[in-house]
Amino acid sequence: MMTNAILNPVKxxxxxxxxxxxxxxxxxxxxxxxxxxxETLQMVLTDERGEKIHATCKRNHIQSVQRKLxxxxxxxxxxxxVSQASGQYRPTTHxxxxxxxxxxxxxxxxxxxxxxxxxxxxxxxIIDGTLKTHFLIDVMGKIVSLEPVQTVQVKGEDRKKVQFRxxxxxxxxxxxxxxxxxxxxxxxxxxxxxxxxxxxxxxxxSFYRGEVQITNAFDASIVYLDPTMEEALKFKExxxxxxxxxxxxxxxxGKKEVVLQEEDxxxxxxxxxSELFVANQVLMLEVASHNESEECKTPFTKxxxxxxxLPDKTSTSKxxxxxxxxxxxxxxx
Length: 333
Fold this sequence. Notes:
By secondary structure, the chain is mostly beta strands. It has helices spanning 62-68, 123-127, 181-185, 230-242, 273-278, 305-308, and strands at residues 21-34, 38-46, 52-58, 74-78, 81-84, 96-99, 105-108, 137-144, 150-154, 157-167, 173-179, 197-208, 211-216, 222-225, 246-250, 256-260. GO terms for molecular function: DNA binding. Residues 8-108 form the Replication protein A 70 kDa DNA-binding subunit B/D first OB fold domain.
């Protein structure tokens, strides 16, 4: 009898067999429209062990599948096909993809399990390139350096974007940029002073100006702001325990921005020695030699090339304080 048939765990699903039976829950779904495949429904399914698989169905089955396989509910699927997973960005690491057709039978399950099966990526694995960029990831952190939502032109169309950084409980941070409807979610939070936790599911690892950046994968991502699931609550508790150092700085428009303490130095203006020379702030420098008691009285403009090209270790102050560098004072007559 079918009711006594063996359930196939998602991890064991392979091609070339259609008579299989799996118990799964729908974690996420979105519509996708391509020139070669038309409109399809894309899904991420999971079994009780948290093993996930990408699933899809064609346009003429979308309504039926959405009705029989609602979000967050467990169902038993019988008779479906499995093929090689492909695509530039894949929502799961499973090597195969499930296709639901008109032959697929979807029935109810008596399982009650509310776990959303997060697979949170470690910041160090994202930053050092350990994770492959064609797999979508789950990432969570505290939002800092939240910029105002912007409207920009992309291929002749107006699109909204917002940039910020996410910080984990150990203080590591990573750049983020959200587009479209995901950027709009943050519009009401720009003025907020309280800490804001953000969870991005099925996020894309990209690169911008040489830096790793997290962004949404078209419509495949989900953004949670101030999430309340167990993992998010534990993350908040960890932040409170570690007391991650943050400081407030003022933006040019008068708004406050939360940034990492160490980034406060980024606003300092650095001047070279040549710039100070042009500004009539001539510093007579003495380079340490075997006889440190000798004073350097050679004019700056006649100094040897290798001495003139010494690395600038000054700040914007006129007075230079270094053990091996002195300021030549004008001798009193």
